[in-house]
Amino acid sequence: MKKLFYLLFAIIFASCASTTKETQIIILSTNDMHAKIKDYAKVAAYVDKVRSENKNVLLISGGDMFTGNPVIDRHEDKGYPMIEIMNKLGYDYGVFGNHEFDYGQNFLAKRIQQANFPLLCANMKVSEQALINQPEPYVIFNLDGIKICILATVQVENINNKLIPDTYPERVQNIDFFQPVETALEYKYLREKCDLFISLSHDGIHEDSILAQKMPELDIIIGGHSHTLVNGMVVNDVLISQTECYLKYIGKTTITLKGTKIIDKKFEIINVAALQDENEEIKALINKYYEETPLKEVIAKTKVNITGKENIGNLMTDAIVSVLNLDIAFQNSGGIRIDTIREGDISLLTIYELDPFDNQVVLFEMNYDEIFSLLKNSYRKTSKYADLKTAGISYTIKAKNGEVADIEIYDTNGNLLDKNKKYKVGMNAYIAAAYKFDHVDAGKTLNILASDALIEYLKQQKEINPKESDRTKIEKLN
Ligand SMILES: [Zn+2]
Fold first, then answer.
1. 2 domain residue, yes or no
2. pTM (2 decimals)?
3. DSSP E strands: which ranges in 155-292?
4. pLDDT tens-digit readout, 437-454
5. Which residues hold their Cβ within 5 A of ligand 1, which is an ion?
6. How far away, in angstroms, is 76 Cα from ligand 1 center?
7. Which of 115, 205, 301, 436 could cross-link to 228 by cystine, CB 3.0-4.6 Å?
């Protein structure tokens, strides 16, 4: 009898204790890594440390693993090193970012296969003709007695009345996408099935705030896409975070539960630059990929530093004019992604960092007026610079009251450009599509990337010594 009493007591005590037991869940998160692997040795050491000190640690990707580092993006098996490193860190879950589609579905299917962690997404419907499988919209799993649900969504935008993520449209063929917030709202019922309800959203901070407003069922939103540093913002009692981009930060969300009830949730931002320790295995792996990349190949030398958008843009456009035998070429400033080409060896890696966009060159036959209409796009009121860098011409924009009053266009001899001639004009596909200008000729896409035209030019030149020159000027009229 006494024994039975003690047994009963023990059972009651144990069940009371279990409902009041405190549990901590730590979620480490990175978003928008964009293949910038260089800091992964530090991130790995930090993840190791947190795992060694805590029982319940999750590591989550907020999307956009790819696009932004030629060592990964131009690896013969596109993106392979990125997933290899993420596997070694032991990521648990990820969401599709819009840039996950950039390599095409063939490579994406291989990367999904390679990853030891599932990529989730609720707002996409994959048809049978697509090369990837339908992802799970969410997961529910048990961690230390706590039921956790992760619901994932990806950013979309309206392109020609079709919702697609921001990537090359042909790369998302045979996949339908839906508005992420509206989709997430259809999953409100998951609240009943879990203790901790997480939205893993690659939708951007604007959409995340709206989601938090409309869906208080969520406990936290781990965000991405807008490259924003969101240091634990609370909207409608939902804790939102985002770690900017390029592995500059790690997000650390700590959830404390009593029994299965959340009693505290907090977010800390970990500055990766301030971390000292490195995981040696990951460091060696990163070094290996930089060592063995064929992009280290030196293609030419420069006798001087080539610094600034103007000088680098001159080189890029000179290359297009020379290699394709054209009269004039244009390069937009936003497409120039490094500040300096350093004196000495120029490698392929430098060129693909300078121009990572894989834009083909488009050829237009244009007259003077059409060129003039394109150059009107070039004036940037706020920053007072001319956006379009040129070869074959130079030009001066005369601005009055923040508007273009006139443009003087000169040929390479410094004479005013002949108004009665037709010119063969080359520009990258981005300018051709994104800038509004008059052109009777529809344009012809040449089968060469702007970056490859530059590579070809540098290989021909072997050594360059470009002079500083100012082909674009802005003059203010009063
Ligand atoms: Zn994105």
1. no
2. 0.83
3. 157-159, 162-164, 175-177, 196-202, 220-222, 229-235, 238-243, 249-258, 261-271
4. 999 999 999 999 999 999
5. 64, 97-98, 225
6. 23
7. 205
